[in-house]
Amino acid sequence: MTRNQAGFTLIETLVAISILSVVTIALAGVLRTSLTVTSIGERLTGASDQGLVGFSRVHKDIRNMLPCSLFPVLGTPLSFQFATVHSVVSNETEILNAPAKVEYTVSGQDSSAFIRILYMPIEGKVDTTVIFDEVEALQLEYAARDESGEMIWSGEFYATQENDIPDLLRLRVLLSAGRFTEERNLQLDRLFRLPLAGGHRCDASQNR
After folding, report:
1. Could you tell me if residue 26 is left (phi over 0), alpha (psi between -120 and 50 degrees) or otherwise beta?
2. Would 145 be classed as within a structural domain?
3. Owning domain of residue 188
4. For the chain, how many structural domains are there in total?
5. Phi and psi at residue 157, in whole multiples of 5°?
6. Which residues, including other chains, have CB under 8 Å from residue 67's CB and lie 6 or more apart?
């Protein structure tokens, strides 16, 4: 006597489980890749925003650079310092512009941060702000025109009575790979025109 049996055989069940496992693993891989890409995109966007804010801060200080002060104007591959103007609140009502020394430099044992140090002699204070964190590499370059008018780039300068302030400052920053992935480094590059170039000289004796 024969009868019809409902359901799957053992082999059919094993085949179905195998197919389902393959599909699940594939979908998990797609989802993981999507989440990784989204996370990297968010981090890159955040870093780009940080770059815009940081470059804006540098640009504001350079725009207010003082032609002559008690502070020398000098630059190295990892730092740049000059005199600028900052606001001081007087009697809690009046805002005055006062000279101050500002220095942009790397910080930390592994030079992993690019910071802004503002020395305020009138108030007797020092203010430190992080411009870029988790920095893997940073380079400052300076360009000045020679006698023939050609722009010459160098890694350092010192502006005294005998040396002109450079025409251009170039700031390159490479954010740490650990912040994203090894394939997703973010390089920020910005060129600044120094307003005191072209014959202005730093002569501290005029302010003494």
Report:
1. alpha
2. yes
3. 42-74+134-207
4. 1
5. -160, 165
6. 196, 200, 201, 202
